[in-house]
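User: Can you model how hypoxanthine sits in this protein?
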Amino acid sequence: MTVCAIIGGTGLTRLDGLTINTARHFDTPYGAPSAPVLHGDYAGREVLFLARHGHPHRIPPHQVNYRANLWALREAGAQAIIAVNAVGGIHPAMGTGHFCVPHQIIDYTSGRAHTFYEDELEHVTHVDFSHPYDAQLRNKLTAALDQERCGYSSHGVYGCTQGPRLETVAEIARMERDGCDIVGMTGMPEAVLARELALPYACLALVVNPAAGKSKGLITMAEIECALEEGMGQVKAVLAHVLEG
Ligand code: HPA
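Assistant: Here's the modeled complex, given as structure tokens:
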């Protein structure tokens, strides 16, 4: 059986129902991960869990040590990674509460430590990243979303912005022209670091607000928190199905 790791994003700093066997503190060549890596059982399966923003939530998206997180998960024995991300909806289909299993990503971040190959002096390495998400894991996610009868899109382009501020209306309009369907702040460099470590990786994105300019009002933390609270039960059920499957 593949040992799957779950990276919990905003609203998922804990995985209720996880029976924890160990909570391991790692010290990687890149520093400390966001939180101890939990090893335990969820839905009757062995699983690893890491809170991307720490537990409690305290690390903003641009300050997450993505390299340490991915390194620690591999050290802990992860063979595949499912990332949970809260996102804003750009495409009209991506309303609040909708799920998306993106198939592509565009990176708008800057200044993040985004590679394990920084100091390669002898061999310059360029990983293939044509298809950033693992097809098999994506299929498992969509099958689980079907089982849970969630509203979802089986494809989508995730635009990853730097944050921590939200976007301007013009930025979202540009992202829409670029082909982005959803917008978040944590999809990169996480996805590429998983690829550099040859770890299959997929994303379960929950839309928690219409992106800037996509609704009449301004974006409030209260609406995001409310959508997170409403959606996390489904997220946990979907994760359970993925692990069982
Ligand atoms: N923009 C960027 N990241 C997000 C958003 C958004 O509107 N909502 C949740 N994460």
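A couple of observations from the model: The pocket of hypoxanthine is lined by residues 86-88, 161, 166-167, 183-185, 208-209, 211, 219 (CB under 6 Å). The two ends are 11 Å apart (CA to CA).
User: Helpful, thanks.
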